Amino acid sequence: MQFKISKDLIQQIVQLIQSKNNQQLEILLNDMHHADFAEILDEVGIDEATYIFQVLDSEKTAEILLELDDDLREKILSRLSSKEIAEELDELETNDAADIIGELSKDRKAEVISELQDIEHAKSIVDLLRYHEDTAGGIMHKELVKVNENWNVLTCVKEMRIQAENISRVHSIYVVDDENKLKGRLSLKDLLTASTKTPIKEFYISKLHFVDVETPEEEVARIMDKYDLEAIPVVDELGRLVGRITIDDIIDVIKEEIEKRDTEDIQKFGGLEALDLPYVQTRLFEMVKKRATWLVVLFLGELFTASAMGFFEGEINKAIVLTMFIPLIISSGGNSGSQAATLIIRAMALKELDLKDWWYVMKKEIASGFLLGSILGIVGFIRILIWQNLGIHDYGVYWLFIAMTVAVSLVFIVLWGTLSGSMIPFLLKKLKLDPATSSAPFVATLVDVTGLIIYFSIAMLFLNGKLL
Q: Which of 376, 384, 386, 456 is CA-nearest to residue 417?
């Protein structure tokens, strides 16, 4: 059954907090899933949210910390004492605890670590904090189940029972030597079916996938996805087993990477450099710096548009009517180019297209551009035809040639825009540049300049000896 927050539930919680009825509050919230609990904390005020953390058992509230929005978690942690935060972290696995401690200030971080009750837990957290947060070492769990290659099945089972007490879910059983170097893994089926006196050296699996502590988290995600792994062991520089990464951790990595990549691509596609920080945290001068570069480049590009119009100044003076359709025609080319660039960049991001596919894309986009341009050309021709015959606007005695000029220009400009928008990402990728930088403004500027040349060249072809 899906959980839904109601106004009555929120009001009931607030009233229990105001009356300090902690017993009823605990009864009401105790059986609630921590994800639903987090939704409630988003709805109540910060004072009420902090109160809940201070009065309820940390065993319950610890998991909720992980579900909270970053801003809300920061506000709650700022109101809790170092001891109260430590009580929450004592209930979490090492990598989750390390993530939260990593958000604290340097002084507060030291205070919280000193308040942790479990010394081994504290050491493991400090160890994790040494690694960069975007590496395997930064996202791994220290908690795992491991057995020595020299043990027999009975000894393994006894030791596994002790180790598993501190682990919420056992994905794999790893085998190490006397120096804690990773040797392989155990199949649970083989372990259960073997004789209790059988040495595990006789049947453990020596071939397994693993990563070292410095492996980027994106690479870890790629390996686990490729080999369909639920967990993967992590080793240090000497090959010693130091942790494990589970599929849950990788799902979080993938979500963060998708959000980050989509944000960067959107920013680049909008004609600015990707921001290093969220918009609200980016300083004014940094924002201006990120945006100014592309604006100057695009402005210089548009200067060529002005130059192109200056080149055809004589034709414009002779046939002022042609200027009426410049915005219509140029915007159509820019729009078609932006569409094509968006489709190709997205396909590249999803690994649907690679450099070798450029010829296939070119043929397909030439056909698409011609058909799209023909559709718009027909619409443009009919528009002039109707306006002329209904007397809405008089395009003069050569109105039919003007209509042909507009129609044919739309075909070729949309074709050129589509071709440009689809090929520029391939060109940038060939040059080892980010295809996302072939932004909509960049493509539109390119088509603006070339579109004017196409438009007036076709006008000279149809109107030469008439208006021109």
A: 376
